[in-house]
Amino acid sequence: MKKVLFSTALLFAACTVSAQQSVVKEAKSSKSDPVKAAQIIEPALTDPTTANDPETWKLAGDFQKAIYDEENMKLYLPGGKADTAKLYSSLVKMFEYYMKCDEVEQAKVASGELKKAKLRKKLGKTLAGVRPNLTNGGSDAYNGGDYSKALKFFGLYVDAVEHPVFTDEETVKNDTLTPLIACYAALAANSLENKEAVVKYGNVGKKHKDEGYRALMCLAEAYGKGEKTDSVQWLATIKEGTEKFPSQEYFIGNLMDYYIQKGKIDEGLAEINQALAKNESAYFLYVKGVLQYEKKDYESAIETFNNIIGKNGEFVAESYSKIGDCYFFPAQLIVEENSTLQMDDPKYASNESKIKELYEKAKPYYEKAKELKPDNRQLWGQYLLNIYWKLNKAEYDALEKELTK
């Protein structure tokens, strides 16, 4: 009985192999219709009896190449209209199937089933020729908001540099465009909150001399957000961005916030002075003024903010507001002290005089910030309200009504 069952099993296995080989044969006979042939061969790509044959993957890739070539040709014909979704889909599958073909063939060489690989050179040359179009597919997907698909295209382009199938393709191995496309891959991955992909492609993209800052920004976001943050890598990335791309405000701004939060104001000032030596932008000057303010070096801060105002460029309203802060917040310390004193205490009256004096100094700067940026109430709203409450009740009432509209 056992012998009969065993024989039946052998017969079943033989039938399965025969069935899959029949599928491959049928697909070959339908190659004049590559779309149909591609559908026919699909089961053979998952069945072990045929999926372990490099020729199966080569044939599947050939069908996708035929579909791609047909659609791509339409782009160059007068009045031709290509199905770009079909074009890019076949392009991705062509890459996947040809690379899988190389992988299976190399495995057979390693196991001794084959003496040498015969397909790698041809596959690499074919894929190298169509590889540039991956960037078009990625751009279309990214602009359409399909970041997953965009990552697929851009990732295939970048990964090609390290893939063995391109060993003999110098144009791929030495492609100077790869870091730029890696930046786009990192951007797509960042939109998907795919930290692993951001790190993978960001570390390639950051090498681009002009656009590398985008990859570094994505890396900083990946290290600084989410459940598992990495403060060491975040700080290293921010510092790298500051050094490589000193004109990018993102890095300096984040680095200065870090120094302020950690109470390392002097380190921050040293860093911003180095940046200013290379590029005396209004933003960098403003950051320096904020650091001086945080250090409570109000005289120096006011001088820096007045420098910005004198240039009459960016951050003028913000600088007026910060000069106001240089008077308003020291006054708040006295307000807090007075809250602990009796009103008949001689120091209370002296403090009230100091508060009013500082408020009078702060008032015109907040008013100027209001004039320049009336919609940005964070620069002046509550500060002026406090000042008017102390100095002029009529102005307080008018401003209160304005702020509640």
Beta-strand content: under 5%
Number of distinct helices: 21
Order of helices and strands: HHHHHHHHHHHHHHHHHHHHH
How would a crystallographer describe the biggest sheet? Answer: none
Measure the end-to-end span: 93 Å
Shape: elongated
Tell me the total number of β-strands: 0
Which runs of at least 5 residues are low in confidence (pLDDT < 50)? 6-17
Radius of gyration: 34 Å
Can you give the helix content as a percent range?
A: over 70%
- What structural class results from the helix and strand content? mainly alpha
Mean pLDDT: 91
Summarize the structure.
With 405 residues, the protein is mainly α.
Structural overview:
- This protein is mostly helical and 405 residues long.
- The protein is built from 21 helices and no strands.
- It has helices spanning 2-29, 34-41, 48-51, 54-74, 84-111, 120-130, 133-143, 147-159, 170-173, 178-191, 195-205, 212-224, 231-244, 249-261, 265-278, 282-294, 298-311, 316-338, 346-372, 381-391, 393-403.
- The longest helix has 28 residues, at 2-29.
Secondary structure layout plus pairing:
Elements: H1 2-29, H2 34-41, H3 48-51, H4 54-74, H5 84-111, H6 120-130, H7 133-143, H8 147-159, H9 170-173, H10 178-191, H11 195-205, H12 212-224, H13 231-244, H14 249-261, H15 265-278, H16 282-294, H17 298-311, H18 316-338, H19 346-372, H20 381-391, H21 393-403
